[in-house]
Amino acid sequence: MRIVNLLKIAYRSLIKNKLRVLLTMLGIIIGVASVIAMLAIGQGSKQNIQASVASLGTNSVMIYPGSSTQGGVRMGAGSYSTLTKKDADAIVAKCEYVTDVSPVVQKSSQVIAGNQNWHTMVVGGLTQYFSIRNLTIGKGNMFSASDERTAAKVCVIGLTVSENLFGVNGDPVGQFIRINSIPFKVIGVLERKGQNSFGQDQDDIIIAPFSTVQKRMLSTIYLNSILASATSENDVDKAKEQITSIMRVQHKLTPANEDDFTVRSQADIANIFGSISKIMTILLACIAGISLIVGGIGIMNIMLVSVTERTREIGIRMAVGAKGRDVLIQFMIESVVISVLGGVIGIILGILVSFLVGKFGGWPVVITGTSIVLSFAFSSAVGIFFGWYPARKAASLNPIDALRYE
Amino acid sequence: MTNNQPLISVKDLAKSYKMGEMEFYAIKGVSLDIEKGAFAAIMGPSGSGKSTFMNILGCLDYPTKGSYFLDGSDVLKLSKNELAELRNRKIGFIFQSFNILARTSAIENVELPMLYNNSVTSKEGKVKAFNALKSVGLAERANHLPSQLSGGQQQRVAIARSLVNDPLVIMADEPTGNLDTRSSYEIMEIFQQLNDKGITIVMVTHELDIAQFARTNIMFRDGQIVSNSVVKDRKIASVELSKLPVVNPTEVLT
Ligand SMILES: Nc1ncnc2c1ncn2[C@@H]1O[C@H](COP(=O)(O)OP(=O)(O)O)[C@@H](O)[C@H]1O
Ligand SMILES: [Mg+2]
After folding, report:
1. Predicted confidence (pLDDT) per residue in B85-121, tens digit
2. B130, CA 20 to 30 Å: which among A133, A240, A267, B54?
3. d(CA B196, CA A179)
4. Most informative mutation of B18, B24, B225 for ligand 1 (most atoms within 8 A of CB)
5. What is the distance, to the nearest Å, from the Cα of residue A82 to the centroid of all Cα atoms in its chain?
6. pTM above 0.90?
7. A121 within 8 A of A106, measured Cβ to Cβ
8. Number of C-alpha atoms within 13 angstroms, CB side, residue B247?
């Protein structure tokens, strides 16, 4: 009976003050929704990076021309010409911690098939390139060692290239494409790999024998990079060390000279990406935190602005016989309803926004329970506290003082 | 609680306000008995302590000194919750400034005291609220908001609210202070009807003509009672109302 009345009182009060209720709820909605969306985006990119790093193979080691310390920032691969096939051969011959090694040359090229054309990256590598990068053939075959020896004009293409040149349902295997006017026979199509953490399409690639690309397309002795895979994940660091010393001997560097190459493991890159995504997550969390605080201040403002009116209201209620706890329960019910309703709408909105960002922004999102619980708890706590605290103060006054409150 | 006991009995009541270091006495030792069925008007110049006294009688405020018995119970010994119950069941308080809830319909305002009264069901409450509104002539305005009512009508909503829990006493602090003559007389008509039914009424007013509707007049000066007399030529509100010139409709609206 009593609680039914209090629910009735709270309900009436809520529907009679729609604007105030709405504005308070808005603060909670914005706070909750932005935290959920921001953290979903941050978390999504983190997981995406982890996944793509893992898909590259945790054992792989990359050697790039140029020093990582030169000018602080490493220029794009190919900015320096210090690596040659001999370096790759030396690593194969001398490094005991690597299994597969492949020199890599690459060139961004125009590709034509029939009346279709496409611009993509053409990579020249050995057969080992596939195993190091965890690439598998979906259709057709990989090129062979003899293709490498004869610099055969054959290639394996990624699905994006295939779809753009031969249509979604076309079968490119056995067909010819022209890369920079040189005809190549397509002998295989790669299994789909999807986007990497930068949103780069890993299926937008053509792989041809190293010698073919080097001699027929680039006519250069310099490499863009050397890829290797360590004997095991634990040997990656030893492999890096050994490769570094082999390379220094190869390039006849004295102790006074800096490395003119950079050796990186997949783990190093994972770390770099990891710290980038960590910075981003922190940034997003800051934005989310700010909107949570802004939302909280909004709630606070509305509640405090209405204190005078509400204190008078409390005075009236007490004058006609409301006890202090009746008033408190009423205000508690009101605040909880506002907070929970606002929180639930905020959660729905946050999930919706995350979903839309994921769908239209091409950005991976992962909604975490923590962000939901955290933002909901914070906003509700602010909402309930600022609903309850002024009410508690008013309810402790004499009715006449509450009525006179200014 | 014997029958010949006065309904209200205060002794040596005093109330002081602290103004910084100074202690200012708004009421300086007031003793007064009010019998059941009385209709007392408290008069006096502005600042003489009428409101202060009334708020204490209405259990809205505490005195600094003295004793106060209402219907046999020692008010000053009651807890806050017991006082709330007392205000709810035994006292109907009417303010000069109406003090009804904004954005809340007349009927819901009148229902309010019953929402804090466990012995009234929600159905009974609706019926009683409507009857109370009817008794003050506002049956047709039950669903109007305060902003849609005139001052006199708002005060009648407040009166209906004060009546609805069948109180022993109605206390009104300048109930006609914000109203025109006709509305004031209408309120007095309601008060006289209620008083004729046996409800005790204590009312503060500084208007002589309003005080003449009461049975007794109590004069306040400087926080003390200076006289307590029976009204000689008591006015009857229904008669006075019929003597008023007929007003044109535009005046009624203001
Ligand atoms: N809350 C208060 N604080 C300080 N002084 C007050 C307060 N309320 C009333 N007073 C003082 O007490 C005196 C009596 O006030 P009041 O009871 O309102 O007079 P009346 O209703 O007769 O005009 C006045 O001098 C007034 O200034
Ligand atoms: Mg006064």
Report:
1. 999 999 999 999 999 999 999 999 999 999 999 999 9
2. B54
3. 111
4. B24
5. 33
6. no
7. yes
8. 13
- Per-residue pLDDT at A102: 94
How many other C-beta atoms are found inside a 10 Å radius of the C-beta of residue A311? 22
Give the Å distance between the CA of A402 and the centre of ligand 1: 16
**What one-letter code names the amino acid at A394?**
A
| DSSP string covering A149-213 | HHT-SEEEE-HHHHHHHH-SS---TT-EEEETTEEEEEEEEEPP--B-TTS-BTTSEEEEEHHII
- Measure the CA–CA gap between A192 and A160, rounded to whole angstroms: 9
Ligand 1 atom 1 nearest Cα: B17
- What are the tens digits of pLDDT across the range A173-205? 999 999 988 999 999 999 988 776 566 788 999
Number of the ligand closest to the Cα of B52: 1
Instruction: Strands of B20-123 (E only): list them.
Output: 22-34, 39-43, 65-70, 73-74, 91-94
| A131's tokens | 């195993």
Exposure string of A6-19, with b = 16+ CB inside 10 Å and e = fewer, is: bebbbebbbebbee
Q: Which CATH class is domain B36-62+79-253?
A: alpha beta
3-state DSSP assignment of residue A391: helix
pLDDT in tens, A237-286: 899 999 999 999 999 888 888 888 889 887 787 777 778 878 888 888 88
Task: Name the amino acid, one letter, at A222.
Answer: Y
